[in-house]
Amino acid sequence: MRLILIFAVLCFFYNETYGKVSLDIDKKLGTLNKPALKTIKSEDGDVIDCIDIYKQHAFDHPALRNHKIQMKPSVEFDTKKTTTPNNGSSKPITSQIWSKSGNCPVGTIPVRRVSRADIMRASSPSHFGRKTHHRYSFLDNALQHKANFNLTAERLREPLNNRSEAIIVALGFNFLGAQSDINIWNPQGVQAGDYSSAQIWLLGGVSNTFESIEAGWMVNQRVFGDSRTRLFASWTKDAYTKTGCINLLCSGFVQTSTKFALGATVEPVSILGGAQYFIAVSIYLDPNSGNWWLTCANNVMGYWPGILFNALKHSATAVQWGGEVYSPNLMMTKPHTKTPMGSGNWASTRWNRACFHTNLRIKDFSMQVKYPQYLSEYVDEHYCYSTRLFRDTYMSEPHFYFGGPGQNPQCP
Ligand SMILES: *[C@@H]1O[C@H](CO)[C@@H](O)[C@H](O)[C@H]1NC(C)=O
Ligand SMILES: *[C@@H]1O[C@H](CO)[C@@H](O)[C@H](O)[C@H]1NC(C)=O
Ligand SMILES: *[C@@H]1O[C@H](CO)[C@@H](O)[C@H](O)[C@H]1NC(C)=O
């Protein structure tokens, strides 16, 4: 009798908790996977749904209920004047794998379908696709001290909060845009709960509630369920406390592209000692609408509506290029994570071994697109990851190399 009672009580609790989570997952799936007008099965295993552009998840955001969609930017991020050929020896990617299997019709956008298993890997359905809170203390002083700003000293005040960065930073001005050509790699051995990214950040606000818009590629098994290199964009307006997420996994980013899907793979990846590939990424403010546009591979992806932000409404106060590793096993915790950054090779190994950003450009209030005047390099964990800004000759386009293996004898 007593056993039956215990069993009944156990069943009850099991249903209460499991049943509730399961309901939450169904709800989440319902909001993320909008009805498809056409479905494309990609050869890499992804399912791409073509959904009505006016029914995308962005418009579930309370601030965007009556938002009038902007179909294209009113300005361009004009790089023609300043861009020098990318050393002629690396190739841009121009499409994604899934588009070999079909196209999305006009009036729709391609969205990578989320599976139940994807959401179940998150700590909870509400955390799915979200970055975790951290702070950028250096932002508090970023505008005040232009000349003698010591980025290292400022960044050393920041707790690492499970993320390690190797970056180059432009400071001292208000930025209206930034771009780079990001070398594409598939770092091997990114640990299951970690992610590794190569990306651009535009930052505004203050340390504890900083605002950020970001884009590049990442390997993130927890979100995507495999170790492929995937296109991503993300945002927050409160230091990733409550707002923002990766791709379209929360409402916010408005997609307009019919050609590229966020979260889909970026290929081909570069070969060690061989062919090098890159994806051109730019993010810039549309002064007429206040929206921040994202372009990838010369294709306008869409925008973050200005209404999502406070500080970033008018400009960004810092731009970062580089890589980030997220892991609970950094710094003090030993062993250090084995998750690599970039290609997994040290920045000092340079061309066709280390991952790079090149054609670094910013746009400021002069409205000109230019190579940033003040750049500072910074690495959170020198023995695990690295940076090196390098140019062949005084006249040639600089390459910013970054990355490293993570755990190694110097980074135990
Ligand atoms: C430019 O390309 C050549 C090969 O064509 C290579 O040897 C050289 O290291 C490259 N330089 C940079 C900075 O990428
Ligand atoms: C910047 O701060 C770091 C750490 O406090 C220090 O090691 C470095 O010498 C400083 N650099 C300059 C140029 O003052
Ligand atoms: C780091 O990750 C661990 C394990 O997931 C988590 O318990 C901890 O709260 C995280 N710390 C921060 C500051 O995010």
Q: Which hetero compounds are present in the coordinates?
A: 2-acetamido-2-deoxy-beta-D-glucopyranose
Radius of gyration: 21 Å
Percentage of helical residues?
10-25%
**Total beta strand runs:** 19
Strand content: 25-35%
The assigned structural class equals: mainly beta
Query: pLDDT average, as an integer?
Result: 91
Number of domains: 2
Report on the biggest sheet. 10 strands, mixed
- Helix-strand pattern, N to C? HEEEEHHEEEEHEEEEEEEEEEE
Task: Name the poorly predicted regions.
Answer: none
What overall form do the CA principal axes indicate?
A: globular
How far apart are the first and last residues' alpha carbons, in Å? Answer: 55 Å
Keywords: Signal
Domain Neprosin PEP catalytic: 157-412
InterPro entries: Glutamic_endopeptidase, Neprosin, Neprosin_propep
Signal peptide: 1-19
Description:
The protein is mainly β. It has two domains: 1-32; 35-403, no CATH class. Helices cover 11% and strands 30% of the residues. The strands form three sheets. Strands 3, 6, 10, 11, 12, 13, 15, 16, 18 and 19 form a ten-stranded mixed beta sheet that branches. A hairpin with a 5-residue loop joins strand 1 (36-41) and strand 2 (47-52). The longest helix has 31 residues, at 2-32. The radius of gyration is 21 Å and the shape is globular. The relative contact order is 0.18. Bound molecules: 2-acetamido-2-deoxy-beta-D-glucopyranose (NAG) (3 copies). The site of one 2-acetamido-2-deoxy-beta-D-glucopyranose has 4 residues, from loops.
Please provide a brief summary of the model.
With 412 residues, the chain is mainly β. The protein is built from four helices and 19 strands.
